[in-house]
Design a protein that fits this description.
five-stranded antiparallel sheet; single chain; alpha+beta; globular
């Protein structure tokens, strides 16, 4: 019964995202995968992407996957939800390992933060620590990391999206 309700909630959220995407004419990431059990092997992050904007490149470029995802969540609007404190605390825990954090917050569609790590190794340590975290496992909504983007100086930028758990 709980799985049926969760499946229905994911389907309703997916339809809502599609309506929002058509209204704003912006691409929408696919709906989150259903939550997995804590015993499942965590998915490894995808390979590093090219930096979002190389030095000297034009400002007229397509937004990265990370930028599109974060924009979609932020544009869903602000609001106080029962899960806001839990999502913010989880994002802040991961932020402790980042060299820089921005767009950390919770919105109607869920919570998100963009992290920049000093190196690929620092990113992988933080990613692995998050996957093993009890707080990460306790988040019942979908969780999605954007493709990590590596800058020429070695810094790695990625975003974590925590989809609303209800």
């Amino acid at each position: 019964m709980a799985l049926a309700i969760a499946g229905l909630a994911v389907a309703v959220f997916a339809v809502w995202l599609l309506v929002l995407a058509h209204r704003h004419e912006a691409p929408v990431p696919p709906p989150p995968a259903p939550p997995t059990t804590a015993t499942a092997e965590p998915a490894r992050p995808r390979p590093l992407a090219a930096p979002a904007l190389a030095a000297g490149a034009s400002d007229a470029r397509e937004p990265s996957e990370r930028e599109r995802w974060v924009t979609t969540v932020v544009e869903s609007g602000s609001g106080r939800e029962p899960w806001t404190d839990q999502g913010t605390a989880l994002l802040q825990t991961i932020a402790r390992d980042a060299a820089h954090t921005e767009t950390l917050g919770c919105y109607i569609a869920g919570c998100t933060a963009t992290y920049t790590f000093a190196s690929r190794a620092a990113y992988e340590r933080a990613y692995d620590a998050a996957q093993r975290s009890a707080d990460y496992a306790a988040w019942t909504g979908g969780k999605r990391w954007s493709m990590p983007e590596q800058a020429p100086d070695g810094e790695v930028t990625t975003a974590l999206l925590l989809y609303r758990p209800d």
